[in-house]
Design a protein that fits this description.
- By secondary structure, this protein is α/β, with parallel strands linked by helices.
- The protein is 40% helix and 16% strand.
- The protein has 14 helices and 13 strands.
- Helix 1 crosses helix 14, helix 3 crosses helix 4 and helix 6 packs across helix 10.
- The longest helix has 25 residues.
Length: 362
Amino acid sequence: MGEIMKVIITAGGTGGHIYPALSIINKIKEKEPKSEFIYIGTHNRMEKDIVPKYNIEYVPLEIYGLSKKDIKRDIKNIFLIKKAYKKCIKIMKNFKPDIVIGVGGYVTYPVILAAHKLNIKTFIHEQNSIPGKSNKMLAKLVDAIGVSFKDSKKYFKNQDKVYFTGNPCSENAIDAKVISKTEYGIKSYKKLVLIVSGSLGSKTINNKMIDYLKSICDKNYECIYITGKDYYEEFKTNIFPKNVHIYPYIDNMVGLLKNVDVIVSRAGASSLSEILALKLPSVIIPSPYVANNHQYYNALSLKDNNACIMIEEKDLNKDILSNSIDKCLNTEFSNNLKNNMDNLYVKNSSTKIYDIIKEIIK
């Protein structure tokens, strides 16, 4: 296209916000290679390490989420939000962006607020089925809102500016380079079950999984179990059958997903977007330890459409899990799940978001 779009993008706190933001950046770069970007994130969370690796200009803000319990910190944070807002005003006056994009996390609040004050066009994206606090507060100020789940539209008042875009990570999943399961010691003719409980792992899930993993020696599938880096050394001291393969973490896991028959996973928005994109039969165990219990509602969006099996963590045991995995390995049942995923998935999510942004700024 040869145009130059000037973009400020903001997202922070977790990979569930950061990677969709990077997917949007990649799509804009693909369409308009000369575009310029500034990424505004927190000074102390994972985006400060991840984003600069992609050669994107990074500006940190000192800002914290509201705690409800630590009143002193909340009072301090009110001053920090004002300071961050003023810093954003200054950045925007110098950079003169065409669009400011918020992709979740409390850091987005002062950034979008500053853009609104300066009459700069704005777009926010919500990954979870229940919108986060920042997006709820910002919704009335922005020009357009993208949602990952159809169900999320009802939480926003101005329906006419809410678009079902899907999650931009889904396009990354489709484009990811395939990783052979033989690289992880799995025979090519064997079915593969992958169990992962988020990038950091979960001590609760790990403890509940030991009985299941010890019980599957007579199963005709192989199982890769991801412990999370913090729990690997302790977990691998258990003695498991030969068809169980333990790893702390797998880089580019989405490449391996293309060779997985069933995945057991948490219900983070990015994980579910990859599962939907790859039409992967899944057993979903939502984390009960997240804001607004949003993982439960993320998973419910799939379960209510017969697109996954959901097990709540409190109900998880070896028999329920084993039966659920066996169900997903059944050809008729898994085909039914795959067919139902079609209604929940937007094939070209990043492209759709790019098109909405272009429409806003023209």
